[in-house]
Amino acid sequence: MPPTPVYIICSPGLQVGKTLIARLLSEFLLLKNGSVLSFDINLREPSLVDYLPKITETADVTDTWGKMQLMDRLILDDGIAKVIDLGFHAFDEFFKMCIEIEFVREAVRNQVAPIILFVGSADRVSSRSYEVLRHQIRAPALITVHNQFVLRGELPEAMDRGPVLRIFALPQFLKTYIDRLTFSFTGYLRHEKDSTTELHQWIWRNYTLFRDIELSLMRSARLGARR
User: Fold this and answer.
1) Residue 10 and residue 116: Cα distance in Å, rounded?
2) What is the three-class DSSP state of 43?
3) How many CA atoms lie within 13 A of 49 on its CB side?
4) Of the chain's two ends, which shows fewer C-beta atoms within 10 Å, N or C?
């Protein structure tokens, strides 16, 4: 059996589109697997739990109890993929905790595969944070997300060297449409009969990108089992 994936969507910056990506990924995993457990670690509203309340729990990493509760869930090989929407305010504390408890090593030991989706930005804080993560998390477990809603130009060169997930920008009127709390990506695919619409193709393309990440994870697991 492949390891249980834990996707950590993160950035030290504000308003880079983390929750949008967490929504897309959570809905894809729910469609594909029939189950997913998402965690919302955010201060701002609306956040992931507002969009997907049936599959999302809030989590806190500001105290020891909250950290223990979250980590116990993340290192559990229960076959249910996890998605973490990590707010900018918790970025440093979360990864400091990961180092202290050797989260990556413990996860691998328990047949859990952490995957960091770092949402890239052009500011210096993001560049420094990425470099720190790059020395802690090796590719292919560290993937840069180029969200073209936010970063219209090229990614910083250092972030573009490893695996990159590119989220294309939609026209503003469609962006406003998908930002509604009642909007569902999977629901749109099911009910929109015209598969040639720009939004239909955008959702399908992103779901395909997530599928490719899962396939890569499975290939890595098979290679590891042969060694």
Assistant:
1) 7
2) coil
3) 13
4) C
**Residue 3 dihedral angles phi and psi, to the nearest 5°:** -65, 160
Query: What are 54-85's pLDDT values in tens digits?
Result: 999 999 998 889 999 999 999 999 999 999 99
How far apart are alpha carbons 77 and 129 in whole angstroms?
Answer: 29
Distance separating alpha carbons of residues 147 and 167, to the nearest angstrom: 5
Question: Using an 8 Å Cβ cutoff, are 83 and 34 in contact?
Answer: no
| Whole-angstrom distance, CA of residue 21 vs CA of residue 109 | 28
Neighbour-count burial of 81, counting CB atoms closer than 10 A to its CB (0-12 exposed, 13-18 middle, 19+ buried): buried
Summarised one tens digit per residue, pLDDT across range 134-181 is 888 876 789 999 999 988 888 988 898 889 999 999 999 999 999 999
Query: Over the Cα atoms of the chain, what is R_g?
Result: 17
Cα–Cα distance measured from residue 77 to residue 44, given in angstroms and rounded to the nearest whole number: 30
CA distance 191 to 108: 39
> Using CA atoms, how far apart are residues 217 and 120, in angstroms rounded to an integer?
22
State both tokens at 8. 């950590």
Q: Is the pTM above the cut of 0.85?
A: yes
Q: What is the pLDDT of residues 81-132, one digit of tens each?
A: 999 999 999 999 999 999 999 998 999 899 999 999 999 998 999 999 999 9
Question: Token pair of 217, please?
Answer: 């994870």
